[in-house]
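Onboarding guide, step 5: your first structure request.
Type a short instruction followed by the sequence, for example:

Predict the 3D structure of this protein.
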Amino acid sequence: MNNGIAVALVHAAHRVEARVEEALAGVGLSNAKFEALSVLVAQDRPISLSELAEKLTCVRSNITQLVDRLEADGLVKRIDDPADRRAVRAEVTRLGRERHAAGAKLVNAVLQAVAKELAAVDPKVLKRALDAVQ
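The system replies with structure tokens like these:
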């Protein structure tokens, strides 16, 4: 792969990410908030901040700040861990589930639009090319 193709790939990824961020802003979410809510909704149970950090491949201090923002927005609440008095768990609220569902529709719309833009490219060839990037 020459440098021009690699640079184009990075720029395309940034443009898609910016489109997702812009769409999510319409429901008061950032991509980071949406991803955290996605994990909490998928788990369907309160999880420790350490577990959330692991699932998001993020350091614990960043998760603490992210959960602070989600909690301030009423999307997540902290609850005590019954097994460890020193630990805390994050639980998605009803509003968090609603906002996540609205965000998921917007993200899917962006991804559908991107797929439509790439429709002229053989999807198997594109997938193999993207999977080759390690």
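Each response can be followed by summary notes, for example: The radius of gyration is 18 Å.
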